[in-house]
Predict the 3D structure of the following.
Amino acid sequence: MSYCDYVLKPECDPLHRHYHDRFYGFPIEDDNELFGRLVMEINQAGLSWLTILKKEKHFRMAFDNFDVEKVALYGEEERGRLLSDAGIIRNKLKVDAAIHNAGVILELRRQHGSFRQWLDMHHPREKAAWVKLFKAHFRFTGGEIVNEFLMSTGYLAGAHHKECAVYHDVLKSQPRWLNV
């Protein structure tokens, strides 16, 4: 069952519908928001997306509103704070990946102007090439995480099927995959 079909089911949590209708597949221009989506996708690994959606506001607070510059400077004190924060996923590898990846994004900004510009520079690519690229730069970025990150931010097609009412809204937002 597609995500588009799933969110229409009466038993579907409204958080899914809200995310599907307003965020999933729409391009993100802001580097902090791109970083935030990457953090969320990494934290979803092994868990349900609903768990992450329920914790999104707390993730945002815990990671200084996904401010890349602030998170990149996190040291042992902030790391310890995050690992004891029940409002987020307290997984050492995922916390360490978020801090490390923020540093990588800062370096990409220095080299390319922004994380978004770095992504744009590498677009279009097939999923396998994207995964290889992400693994060369970021931590905790396997195939499914990279695929969902790129679909959810408009770099890869597939977030919505063509019969989905939101599909046309996504097209109006000019996702990067349209420019292939």
Notes: Residues 16 and 50 are 7 Å apart (CA to CA).
